[in-house]
Amino acid sequence: MGKSKELSVDLKKRIIDLNKSGKSLGGISKQLQVPRATVQTIIHKYKVHGTVVSLPRSGRKRKLSHAAERRLVRMVKSQPRITKKQVCKDLEADGTQVSVSTVKRVLHRHGLRGCRARKKPLLQKRHVKTRLKFAADHMDKDKTFWRKVLWSDETKIELFGHNTQQYVWRRKGEAFNPRNTMPTVKHGGGSIMFWGCFAASGTGSLQKVNGIMKKEDYLQILQENLKPSARRLGLGRSWVFQQDNDPKHTSKVVKEWLNR
Predict the structure, then answer these.
(1) What region, left, alpha or beta, does residue 188 occupy, with left being phi > 0 and alpha being psi -120 to 50 degrees?
(2) Is 243 helix (H, G, I), strand (E, B) or coil?
(3) pTM of this prediction?
(4) What is the pLDDT of residues 137-168, one digit of tens each?
(5) Torsion of the alpha carbons at 210, 214, 215 and 217, rounded to the nearest 10
(6) Which of 52, 108, 127, 156 could be joined to 191 by an S-S link, Cβ 3.0–4.6 Å?
(7) Are 73 and 112 in contact (CB under 8 A)?
(8) Where are the alpha helices (DSSP H) in the chain?
(9) Measuring CA to CA, which residue among 138, 133, 190 is closest to residue 159?
């Protein structure tokens, strides 16, 4: 037998009104052409819940208990790079079999979504400490000061090698948590090096570096590109040149030229 059609809310309300007026179950059934058992069920439901509107149904039994969900979330938070398939295998090893879709829904419900890992330079503790000190020492500088700073550095661009993408499970706003980033280092096969500079007003020169750059090569790059870049960027007569503490940058010959 096919599933019968659910009665409308208006018809259910009429059943309740007739019952309140003192009409019997059989009389209501005969008058409205509704099975007596259905009339009885609707009246009982109204007495218990105070409504004739269909209540939410329990639906299919959950595949994962609340405890299992919490364990799944802890697993992913402790291993952000774990894949959905690996999560399924780990749960199956513990006797719980779920689909990849179920794992995805649970993680989304807890605010965890698969995102590309952000690439950040690999920093040692001394690097972090030095950068934090630099930021603290310059917190009081206004926009006028920063408009007069010319920044420079070298970088290697890999032509072959580490171009793979890594996905991690994370919440919104956690992109640069160290657990969710992919450390990068400045070396690898098939790369090309550039020196460049920029200021708040735009980018300066970009110079290709041939071979291994020594202090003499770095000095020549500065001599040919630094002041022309400052003029093009409109830094005026007084400006600050900012570089890092690479041995080439802090060499005696470079310092002497910069201090002239």
Answers:
(1) left
(2) coil
(3) 0.50
(4) 999 999 999 999 999 999 887 765 555 667 78
(5) -20
(6) 156
(7) yes
(8) 9-20, 25-32, 36-49, 66-78, 84-93, 100-109, 125-137, 143-146, 215-232, 252-258
(9) 190
Instruction: Specify whether 91 is located in the same domain as 157.
Output: no
Q: At what angle do helices 9-20 and 25-32 cross, to 10 degrees?
A: 140
Which pLDDT tens digit goes with each residue over 179-206? Answer: 778 776 655 556 789 999 999 999 999 9
CA atoms of 117 and 168, how far apart (whole Å): 6
CA 10 to chain centre: 49
3-state secondary structure (DSSP) of residue 40: helix
Residue numbers of the domain that contains 106: 66-111
How far apart CA 39 and CA 46 sit, in angstroms, is 11
Which is it for strands 167-170 and 149-158: parallel, antiparallel or unpaired? unpaired
Under a CB-based contact definition with an 8 Å cutoff, are residues 32 and 14 in contact?
yes
168, amino acid identity: V
Q: SS3 for 217?
A: helix
Decide: 226 and 235 in contact? Cβ < 8 Å.
Answer: no
Q: Kindly state whether residue 56 falls inside one of the protein's structural domains.
A: no
d(CA 44, CA 38): 10
Distance CA 237, CA 255 (A): 19
Inside any domain, residue 24:
yes
